[in-house]
Amino acid sequence: MTHRYPAFDDVIHGLADHLRYLKEQGLDSLRITRKPLIDPSSSDMDTLKETPVISAPSVASPAHEELKRSTLTESDHVPDIEADRAYEFERAVTGVATNGTNDDRELRLAELRNYIGECRRCPLHLQRTRLVFGEGNPAARLMLVGEGPGSEEDRTGRPFIGKAGQLLDRIIAAMGLDRKDVFIGNVVKCRPPGNRDPEPDEIAVCRAFLDAQIDIIRPQILLALGKISGRVLTGIPDATLASLRGVFYQYRQIDLRVTYHPAALLRNPAYRRPVWEDIQTIMARLGLPVPPVKS
Predict the structure, then answer these.
(1) Which residue from 61, 72, 255, 258 lies 20 to 30 Å from 31 (Cα-Cα)?
(2) Radius of gyration of the chain (CA)
(3) Which residues contact 61 (CB under 8 A, 6 or more apart)?
(4) Considering only CA atoms, which of 278, 267, 220, 282 is closest in space to residue 245?
(5) Cα 59 off chain centre by
(6) Pair 255, 284: CB distance under 8 Å
(7) CA nearest 228: which of 251, 206, 260?
C-alpha cells in the first residue's frame, strides 16, 4: 500500500530502526534535550568512536520464543510494532482517520485490511485458519470489542458468529439495532490456541490495528466485552470485570463502557441483568428509546 508521504515513512522507520539498535545494545532510556549531545567537529566524536559497545542479554517472552521456533524464513514479511504504529500515526495526522463519509471510512478500513495482509507478526498465526478483521457499519455509532476469535470465527473469518455471537445478536436487537448498524471487532484478530487468553505481546502487536479501526470509525461509544478487552481499553491491568463495570471511561477521546462477554452469560445467566443495565445506559447515551424495566 502506498502512503501519502513516503518521506514520513522513511523518517519513522529510520528512527524505529535506530531505537531498536540502541535497545539491542542495552540502552533502556534516552534523555530528551534540544542541544546536540556531541558536536561532530569536536574531539568528543573520536572518543565516541573508540568507546566499546556493551551488549545486554536479551529477554524473550514465551510467545516470542515460539515465534523463533516457527517455520518463518528470511523472506517472510514480519513487520514490527513500531512500523505498524507509524502507519496508524500517519493515517491519523494526515486526517485520513477522522471526519470521513461512510464510503471514505469503508475504503480506509479496506486499506487497513490490505496493510495487515496475511499477518505473521506474532505466534497466533501459527495455528489460525483465518484472520478475523471485524465487520459492520464503518460509520457505526457503537463499536463492540471482544477478546479474540473463537473456533467458529477462526473457521469463517467473521467475528461473533458462534453461540456467544448469536446471543450478542439478540442483545443488539434488543437495543432496536441490527448487526449491520454496529461494528464488531476484537483485541486480537487471530484465535489463541485452545481459546486461552491472548498474551501481552500478542495484544501489543494487534493493538495498533484495533486503534486504527477505532480512529477510522470514530464511534460515539465503545463497548468492551469481557475482562481482557476491558483491561486493555481501560488500561487497568488485573482488574476484575465487576470492578470495571458501571462507569464510562475515555479511550482515544471516545466514551467507553465495559460489560460481561456474551460467553459469560451463557455460562452464568445471573450476569444477564447487569449486562442489560449496561446496555440500557448505552442506549440512553446514544439517544435510543429505553424500554421500561419489567417488574
Answers:
(1) 61
(2) 22
(3) 199, 200, 201
(4) 278
(5) 24
(6) no
(7) 260
